[in-house]
Amino acid sequence: MLIDIHTHVNLPATVTRPDGTTFCTPEQLIAKLDEAGIDMAVLLPLVSPEHRCRCVGPEEVLDVAAQYPDRFIPFCNLDPRMVNNTPVADLMPLLEWYKAAGCKGVGEITANMPFDDPMVWNMLGQCAQAEMPVIFHVGPRAGGCYGLIDDLGLPRLEKTLAQFPDLKLIGHSQPFWSQISADVTEEMRNGYPKGKVIPGRVVELMRRYPNLYGDLSAGSGHNAVSRDPEFGYAFMEEFQDRLFFGTDICAPHNQTPLVDFLNDAGRTGKISAEAYEKISWRNADRVLGLGLK
After folding, report:
1. Is residue 73 within 8 Å of 104, Cβ to Cβ?
2. Separation of alpha carbons 47 and 158, rounded Å
3. Which residues on adjacent β-strands are paired with residue 24?
């Protein structure tokens, strides 16, 4: 079984993205999942204006998931500036409503604000109170990109992990996964570094903070474990309880290279059968409370 922790959908396909494509419609996304052999997928709304030309709200995601309950798992999403743009905004009514409606987590957080901004921490503290895991995208700077801003070495993320020990924070994006290796530079961290991995900041933080999880979707997650396969297999084995398979399918043309990499690793014994099952679906089932058998 494969559960995809990270996909996006658009209903209907209207405004194009900057590259001229649109997000998949539900039917296009199901076709992509079928082609890759993926059984279920988390749908992530996008609500921050930094990310795309058109926002996709939690209500749309809930509607799609209701149409295809055997295929889609809804998340809600928040922007730290919601309600009244202050560090004391009460976001709990939103979280409680979305959770009661069936949302299993929050994300993908893409607001281009410092990770330790008081409004971000206000939002994350209430996500912890609601017991909802959070998928976050790291941005390398203010402006010209999207994602919670952090510096080389992820110091703001570390402060956040220490501040909210009961909140499951699920890391994603190039500036997060590039720092799996200690030799990453400022110039490299928003890309896809190649070559041997010298265990770096992401490894250190995952060893130190049990509330840090990893979303292996997109080119960034796949690159992190495949650029140095020997390291990647050991990394997946060590953190088998806190890694999630994913693709980050957005548009119909997107590729899904992690499917073959993970399936080959499990089939050929490069990772244990237990690690394979956890990463491919059991961790999602457990963390999201899906109750699958």
Report:
1. yes
2. 25
3. none
